[in-house]
Amino acid sequence: MRLILRETVEHLGPAGEVVDVKPGYARNYLIPKGLAYRATDAALKLIEEDRRQRSERTRRDYLEGRRRASQLEGKTFTLHALAGEGGKLFGSVTQREIAEKAAQSGIDFEVERRDVVLDEPIKALGEYRIPIRLGAEVEVEVRVVVEAEPV
Predict the structure, then answer these.
(1) Residue 149: band (very low, low, confident or very high) from pLDDT cuts 50, 70, 90
(2) What is the longest distance spanned by two Cα atoms in the chain?
(3) Sheet of 36-38: strands edge to edge?
(4) DSSP 2-24
(5) For 79-101, what is the mean pLDDT?
(6) What residue spans in the chain does CATH classification 3.10.430.100 cover?
(7) pTM to 2 decimals?
(8) What percent of the chain has pLDDT over 70?
(9) Which CATH architecture has domain 69-148?
């Protein structure tokens, strides 16, 4: 029996995929649980149209991400923070501060805090290469220099 999966089913396939399963599995499990529905001609046409639209949207998002990445490539952001002996910061430099500094750099879009890929806050003076994720497949690396705040 041909079905279209509404949700990803382990060992069967991802959502939106057309699968062939035994009739009992379809009638007794997949359809009643709302995990799949019958693959009629009309449903298959809708799925194909949805795939085409999703593909186009993914392509547009990728191109927009590349356009944004080109504005950030080669950028250096200098942040000032209070530091003690040995270059250790009294606070830390977080994703939010890097995103704010990027927004002030003259780009025509907003860098979200969650776009800045920082495993843990920066807690020492120095130079860092920080990736900024601008889409599913687009990532650009910027240079962040943390300097001691002048007193």
Answers:
(1) confident
(2) 76
(3) 18-20, 2-5, 36-38
(4) EEEESS-BTTTB-TT-EEE--HH
(5) 92
(6) 69-148
(7) 0.69
(8) 99
(9) Roll (3.10)
CATH class for the region spanning 2-68: alpha beta
Closest CA to 25 of 48, 3, 58: 3
User: Reduced to 3 states, what is the DSSP secondary structure of residue 132?
Assistant: strand
Distance in angstroms (rounded) separating the CA atoms of residues 147 and 74: 19
Give DSSP secondary structure letters for 85-117. Answer: GGGEEEEEE-HHHHHHHHHTTT-SSPPPGGGB-
Phi, psi of 136 (to 5 degrees): -60, -40
Q: Could you give the C-alpha distances from 35 to 42, 48, 56, 106, in angstroms and in order?
A: 18, 19, 26, 47
pLDDT at 43: 86
Closest to 5 (Cα-Cα) out of 24, 41, 16: 16
Q: Where in the chain is the domain with CATH 3.40.5.10?
A: 2-68
Tell me the helices (H) and strands (E) count for the chain, helix number first. Answer: 3, 8
Query: Taking the CB of residue 68, how many other CB atoms lie within 10 A of it?
Result: 20
> Per-residue pLDDT tens for 35-62?
999 999 998 898 888 889 989 999 999 9
* Average pLDDT of every residue of the chain: 91
